[in-house]
Amino acid sequence: MPFSIKQHEFFENANHRWNIKSGATRSGKTYMDYYVIPKRIRRRIGEPGLAVILGVSKGTLQRNIITPLQEIWGSRLVGDINSENICKMFGEDVYCLGAEKISQVSKIRGSSIKYCYGDEITDWSKEVFDMLKSRLDRPYSCFDGACNPGPPQHWFKKFIDSDVDIYCQKYSIFDNPFNDPKFVEELCKEYKGSVLYDRYIRGLWVAAEGSIYRLMCDAVSSESRHNPYELTEKPKNIMEINIGVDFGGTGSGHAFVATAYTRGYQNIVALASERHMSKNGSIDPDKLGQLFVDFCIKIINLYGYITHVYCDSAEQTLIAGLRTAARKGGLGWLRIENALKTIINDRIRFTQRMLSQQRFFYMKNQCDTLVNAMTTALWNEKKLTEDERLDDGTSDIDSLDAYEYTFERDISRFIRYE
Q1: Are strands 336-338 and 308-311 parallel, antiparallel or unpaired?
Q2: Which whole number is the average pLDDT over 329-343?
Q3: What is the pLDDT of residue 225?
Q4: Are 146 and 139 in contact (CB under 8 A)?
Q5: What distance, in Å, lies between the first and last C-alpha atoms of the chain?
Q6: Which pLDDT score is estimated for 224?
Q7: 26-39: string of b/e by CB count within 10 Å (b at 16+)?
Q8: pLDDT tens per residue across span 301-325
């Protein structure tokens, strides 16, 4: 495969101690590394020190680095990661470790590192990166790495902007001439209206600030002539209906949200939402059980069935109470399970992309609490080094969590372009 102009530039000019590519997703910034990595490793064969590849986790390293290397160079030159986290690669034993926690890299603590490749650096633990700096202690030690941009105050951005011996390239998605134009067009649509457009399309280090779901805010604004997300008729081709339950604590409420998947994981539709607050700060478990049964019966009467119920796994006693209430209410067949509670920002990005593609909808007059939660959800502007949803009681996090529990297991099934 031919290389882009920027890839050629990196291959020829990245001869510093630190060689970094920062920028958009699918911009071609990682592809050249499948040729740089063997060059670095072979040049240091026989020299003292370890060869290391670091990523967010062993799984992401296998997917992002090891498997593509095997596809290009073959399994004889690039083996698999063994039980000791070592991969035989181009004649060298290479440690392949997760860098999300300092404990994950204990095997190389205290060792000299002659070469290190870093994947998805902005998602690393800062402690891991600080440890790495002290381990690249040979005259021939060097680091290559790639990352997507994050907030401008991120610790790695400060490192990039420092006066260390660094070669840094910046990529936008338009720097990759080998992308299908249709793919680029669709990806731009998916990230439209979110901070991810500036980061993952333009390759900029920008802060996540203000409203999280800007497109939803625009749609329900009094100035909007048309709301593309609002449905007045029952959606067709319903394939699955899930209910999410989030249990409230002091100052928050118990939230129920029902969503439907349409056939082929085409769309997701919020069917109904409720949030129940108590004046004295708590709702009796029996009362909560009855509210839950009433909500389920409403969904069954309107749409015919419920596939799963996913609940906040931190409240096992309350989940047991819901199961008891369901049996007493004639709904003993309901599959009431623990929510996965995956990474919040992954759930947020999924909803942003569905809004951008106009594949998210909600039933008019049935989802007031969810719509209010989405239109008041804000980024925490005090959290400068990472993206964090504001959770100070000013917005309805309970309904957002309940909604996200309904789809989090199936995000990969909905995403078309990866």
Answers
A1: parallel
A2: 95
A3: 76
A4: no
A5: 20
A6: 64
A7: bbbbbbbbbebbbe
A8: 999 899 999 999 988 999 999 999 9
